[in-house]
């Protein structure tokens, strides 16, 4: 998985790279629907707000699929355009935030707005760490939120772990991650950026993020290096 400092109370995992050393291909997308859960099929059309599906969850209105806006520095998983259609695009943090590339290796907290638009369409923004927590709290807490936010289909099967129920229409799919020209964990894991830097000695190159894995029920609370390439979900202002 991407290089992260994991902050979660879930059991330790065995690294799956030796088992899943190839990218899994699935015929599903991140389309979540505005009124019903996603079945993991269809096409991601989230290239602008007019096409992107959204979902009201509590007091928040979320995009119900990963952002698929093609900007310089973004990539399709495995450099395969078909994966953008399935999962949306992957972005390093400075690209997602529409900040200088130097912000991946230095603190740019003074340039982060309260509702930081980044590459989101007008009227939408990159969710803060606190806004991610508002989401997971609303759906019952981080320890079970992963199951409730996962798309019903499209996740690699793991015995003993409930399948995604997508009961809130968030329709999370495992788009994997990218780093330094390599990619991993499509079909297994999905990572999403927040707009919040990690406030410690590591804040120059770390920010808070969220991760959902195929083999447990959690939404994991992570601290991730900014140069990783993750998915983006936008939240309405």
Provide the descriptors you would attach to this structure in a database record.
single chain; 237 residues; alpha+beta; four-stranded antiparallel beta sheet; two-stranded antiparallel ribbon; 4 helices
Describe the 3D structure.
The chain contains four helices and ten strands. It has about 240 residues and is α+β, with helices and mostly antiparallel strands. It has one domain. Strand 8 (about 205-215) and strand 9 form a beta hairpin.
Strand pairing plus helix content: what structural class?
A: alpha+beta
Strand content: 15-25%
Q: Determine the fraction of residues in helical runs and give it as a percent range.
A: 10-25%
The count of domains is 1
Question: What's the topology here?
Answer:
Layout: E1 4-7, E2 54-57, E3 60-63, H1 81-87, H2 93-97, E4 124-125, H3 129-138, H4 142-149, E5 177-179, E6 182-184, E7 189-197, E8 206-213, E9 220-225, E10 235-236
Antiparallel strand pairs: 1-9, 2-3, 4-10, 5-6, 7-8, 8-9
């Amino acid at each position: 998985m991407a290089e992260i400092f994991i902050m979660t109370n879930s059991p330790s995992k065995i690294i799956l790279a030796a088992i899943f050393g190839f990218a899994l291909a699935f015929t599903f997308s991140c389309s979540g629907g505005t009124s019903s859960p996603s079945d993991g099929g269809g096409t991601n059309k989230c290239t602008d707000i007019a096409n992107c599906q959204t979902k009201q969850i509590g007091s928040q209105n979320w995009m119900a699929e990963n952002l698929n806006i093609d900007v310089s520095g973004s990539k399709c998983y495995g450099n395969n355009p078909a994966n953008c259609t399935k999962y949306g695009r992957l972005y390093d943090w400075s690209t997602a935030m529409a900040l200088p590339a130097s912000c991946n290796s230095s603190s740019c907290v003074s340039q982060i707005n309260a509702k930081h638009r980044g590459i989101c369409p007008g009227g939408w923004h990159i969710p803060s760490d606190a806004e991610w927590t508002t989401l997971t709290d609303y759906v019952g807490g981080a320890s079970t939120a992963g199951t409730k936010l996962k798309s019903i289909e499209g996740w690699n099967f793991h015995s003993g772990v409930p399948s995604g129920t997508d009961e809130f229409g968030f329709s999370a799919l495992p788009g994997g991650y990218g780093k330094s020209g390599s990619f991993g964990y499509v079909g297994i894991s999905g990572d999403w950026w927040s707009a919040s830097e990690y406030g410690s000695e590591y804040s120059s190159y770390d920010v808070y993020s969220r991760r959902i894995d195929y083999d447990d029920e959690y939404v994991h609370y992570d601290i991730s290096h900014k140069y990783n390439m993750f998915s983006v979900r936008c939240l309405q202002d």
